[in-house]
Specification:
CATH topology of the largest domain: Cathepsin B, Chain A
Protein name: Ribosomal protein S18 acetylase RimI
Order of helices and strands: HEHHEEEHEHEEHHEEHEHEHEHEEEHE
Strand content: 25-35%
Pfam families: Acetyltransf_1 (PF00583), DUF3335 (PF11814)
Helix content: 25-40%
GO cellular component, one term: ribosome
Domain N-acetyltransferase: 9-156
GO molecular function, one term: acyltransferase activity, transferring groups other than amino-acyl groups
Strand order of the largest sheet: 1-2-3-4-5-7-6
Largest sheet: 7 strands, mixed
């Protein structure tokens, strides 16, 4: 694109008034996997979705970029990029990618991710030339069941030496984040382990120790630690509260009695193991030391910063560098336009993680570290 062509195009955010123009451009650019009017309207009204438009001198839409920011993380996702077919070859795609990087950096993001069809040669050339690198594949992603190639560009340096290669497992039920996280950690230490929904439910039955205000119970740190130890793994535990957890949020006397009984049973079982339990807050230094020693840590966080729901949620720490802590989040919130791509190696600023890894009125900080199997 020459300077005159570049000056002819105005770059600005997209608004609800641009809905008709976006629909028209979408129809020109895509034969399938198009956004509907309802989807465009919803995305234009969301606080963490951003449209960046290129408008020519006649007021016509020449291209658009849709960028998603995910709450509580330092990850941005290029969800869609479209250029008017009559304006292709003028460098507009490159300009929108540069806009995406600028906007992501303004939001404190460490990386941009996107998906692309394997047969979209022009897009592959564009992303590769802009510094995006393939880091995975997502099967059966598009309407015609084609796979999506997953690309990423780090806006800061990649994580250093403390990186654990941990396979990903998506929880299949709203209350099995703990079992799903434990399965990832165990698989990272024992590649031969077969991950299945049967195992997910078995672990949940073994480790459940928390009554939620509604719905099914969740898994506490001692239950997860015991489940891993019973399968032969070396386990370490940090917890800064004694006694049964989350009793302040439970009013029913019977439920409190159950919590107490379960806690007492788990505590008795822990005494018969060699699980190393630290009666202290887990710190980022503890997590870093665990990774350096070959362990995979599970950390309990408040899901508020991810989903605006006040509930305990387990995640897996896979890497730590000077600025970010990287997580596998077992939950894939499709209503929030997330896919598995957005739940792997999620970067969270270290200052934000400190606030996130603290739950409830009790200010609970806890983690379970899974090491290779005992000999």
């Amino acid at each position: 694109m020459n300077c005159q062509q570049d000056a002819e195009l105005q770059e600005r955010p997209g608004y609800l008034d641009d809905l008709e123009a976006l629909l028209a451009l979408e129809g020109k650019c895509f034969n399938q996997d198009r956004f509907s009017r309802r989807q465009f309207r919803w995305l234009l009204q969301r606080g963490h979705a951003h449209f960046q438009l290129l408008i020519d001198l006649d007021g016509q839409l020449a291209g658009y970029l849709l960028l998603l920011f995910h709450r509580g993380t330092s990850l941005a996702r290029i969800y869609s990029l479209a250029i008017d077919p009559q304006r292709q070859g003028q460098g507009l795609g490159k300009r929108l990618l540069e806009a995406a990087e600028r906007l992501a950096l303004e939001q404190g993001c460490s990386a941009l991710r996107l998906e692309v069809r394997p047969d979209n040669a022009a897009a592959l050339r564009l992303y590769t030339a802009a510094g995006y690198r393939k880091f995975g594949e997502y099967a059966d992603y598009y309407e015609d069941h084609a796979a999506a190639l997953r690309f990423q560009k780090r806006l800061y340096k990649a994580p250093g030496g403390c990186v654990r290669q941990v396979p990903y497992y998506q929880q299949t039920l709203p209350f099995t984040c703990g079992p799903a996280s434990l399965m990832m950690a165990m698989k990272g230490q024992a590649p031969e382990l077969e991950l299945s929904r049967n195992l997910e439910l078995q672990l949940w039955r073994e480790a459940t120790s928390i009554f939620m205000t509604t719905g099914h119970g969740g898994c506490g740190p001692r239950g997860l630690a015991l489940a891993a130890w019973n399968r032969g793994f070396k386990v370490e535990l940090w917890i800064n509260r004694e006694g049964p957890l989350f009793t302040r949020g439970v009013r029913d006397v019977t439920k409190k009695e159950v919590l107490t009984l379960v806690h007492q049973e788990f505590a008795a079982q822990m005494q018969a193991t060699d699980i190393l339990e630290h009666q202290t807050e887990v710190t980022q230094d503890h997590l870093l030391q665990t990774l350096e020693a070959g362990g995979v840590p599970l950390v309990l966080i408040s899901s508020w910063r991810f989903s605006r729901q006040k509930s305990p949620h387990w995640v897996v720490v896979t890497a730590i560098d000077d600025q970010f802590i990287y997580l596998h989040d077992p939950e894939v919130d499709e209503e929030d336009q997330k896919s598995r791509v957005d739940s792997l190696q999620v970067p969270v600023a270290r200052k934000d993680f400190s606030r996130m890894a603290c739950f409830g009125q009790e200010k609970l900080r806890t983690a379970v570290a899974v090491f290779p199997k005992r000999r």
